[in-house]
Design a protein that fits this description.
two-stranded antiparallel sheet; mainly alpha; single chain; 4% strand; 75% helix; 2 strands; 167 residues; elongated
């Protein structure tokens, strides 16, 4: 009997034929469930690919919305800088107002380039940047995370929280 030759795990009283087969090309043993196991594996990977595609589509949609919001915010920021440049001209001098206008022009050209790019191109550029300089990418992500956290915290504070003395 096979049980006498090979000790079985506790709670097992016999070996199921076909539960363990050997791959003839490599000699490696692997457990299979026959055709049912192959079908289940195929169904798993089909479902995995489907979920992966849905995740990519959803991430792409969020990226499009984020890109639109970012370019809109940059447009508003450029307008604000240009408006402030006039006040800087009057209070400090035209030279400093020109600095503000040049900064606004630089942001506007960056914003126009951002508007003209596809989200997939932006993802590819981000991947390339991370591959070339991972330390800079991690540092930038940490800094942005800190800024977003501070902005979120500031937005969640109520007026009574700001008035209360800190301990």
């Amino acid at each position: 009997m096979a049980a006498a030759e090979t000790p079985l795990p506790e709670g097992t009283d016999h070996i199921i034929n076909g539960a363990s087969t050997t791959d003839e090309t490599s000699g490696a043993a692997h457990a299979t469930g026959g055709e049912a196991g192959t079908a289940a594996r195929g169904a798993f990977f089909e479902k995995f690919d489907e979920v992966k595609a849905q995740g990519y589509d959803r991430a792409r949609e969020y990226a499009l919305v984020g890109k639109d919001r970012t370019t809109g915010a940059l447009d508003d920021f450029v307008r604000m800088i240009n408006d402030a440049a006039g006040q800087v001209d009057a209070k400090v001098g035209a030279q400093y107002g020109d600095y503000a206008r040049r900064a606004a022009d630089g942001l506007a050209s960056f914003n126009d380039a951002l508007k003209g790019k596809d989200v997939d191109d932006l993802f590819n550029e981000a991947r390339e940047m991370v591959a070339k300089a991972p330390a800079i990418a991690v540092g930038t992500a940490a800094a942005l995370g800190f800024i977003v956290a501070r902005l979120a915290k500031a937005g969640l504070e109520t007026p009574s929280d700001k008035d209360a003395p800190s301990a």
